[in-house]
Amino acid sequence: MDAERRLLLTGFEPWADHAANPAEVLARRLDGWRHRGWRVCGVVLPVALDAGPAVLTAARRDLRPHAVLHLGLAASRPGLTVERWAHNVADFPLPDNRGAQPRGEPLAEDGPTRLAATLPVAAAVHALAATGVPATPSASAGQFVCNAVLYASLRWAAAARFAGPVGFVHLPSPQTLALDTQERALERLLRWLVAAQL
Ligand code: PCA
């Protein structure tokens, strides 16, 4: 009997002209975080359309998580944003880390136009905002690799009838909001997730 419950927390490596990615740093920092029988497993994904979802699939197989939370950097946003939707489109403004640059292509020919995050967005925003950080819901995870990973994750969750929550939080730049402050807000969100036993 496996009593421990695992939350898979993913971040992304840096890309383009970002020297570092707070999503990577915080996924690593929170790796091993424990609370009331839950353990966070931090995994860093490549910023690549052909590799990000594949690494996620492997991590899911190895870790058999009960909840999945993705983190990514949205450097132009002023606070933390909780994504409501993944859209079935890849329209990269610049090549990913492996040189792929689809323009206006569907992620899955046969997939739905959009998929809703199964993490309760309003409650997640509330948990983050309770620490005093700016936090809002977002209607778009963009059209780059973050959106592609969320779309793949939600598609898997629907197909596998995954009972736990799957969600995505975009983080602001550490220049906008200190990393330690972002970390405290994420810990608050994690404690809420544990308490809610979703
Ligand atoms: N943010 C990018 C990809 C990796 C990341 O952290 C995005 O929003 O798509």
Structure write-up:
Helix 1 crosses helix 5 and helix 2 packs across helix 4 (145-159). Helix content is 32%, strand content 23%. The chain is globular. The strands form two sheets. It has a seven-stranded mixed β-sheet with strand order 2-3-1-4-9-5-8, sandwiched between helices. It has a two-stranded antiparallel sheet with strand order 6-7. The chain has helices at 22-30, 52-63, 121-129, 145-159, 179-196; strands spanning 5-12, 34-35, 38-45, 67-73, 80-83, 85-87, 114-116, 135-138, 166-171. It is built from five helices and nine strands; from the N terminus they run βαββαββββαβαβα. It starts with a strand and ends with a helix. The model has no long low-confidence stretch (mean pLDDT 97). With 198 residues, the protein is α/β, with parallel strands linked by helices. It binds pyroglutamic acid (PCA).
Radius of gyration: 15 Å
> How would a textbook summarize the main sheet?
7 strands, mixed
Q: Work out the helicity level.
A: 25-40%
Shape: globular
Whole-number mean pLDDT? 97
* Cross-sheet strand order for the largest sheet: 2-3-1-4-9-5-8
Properties at a glance:
198 residues, binds pyroglutamic acid, 5 helices
Write the layout of secondary structure elements.
Layout: E1 5-12, H1 22-30, E2 34-35, E3 38-45, H2 52-63, E4 67-73, E5 80-83, E6 85-87, E7 114-116, H3 121-129, E8 135-138, H4 145-159, E9 166-171, H5 179-196
This protein binds pyroglutamic acid.
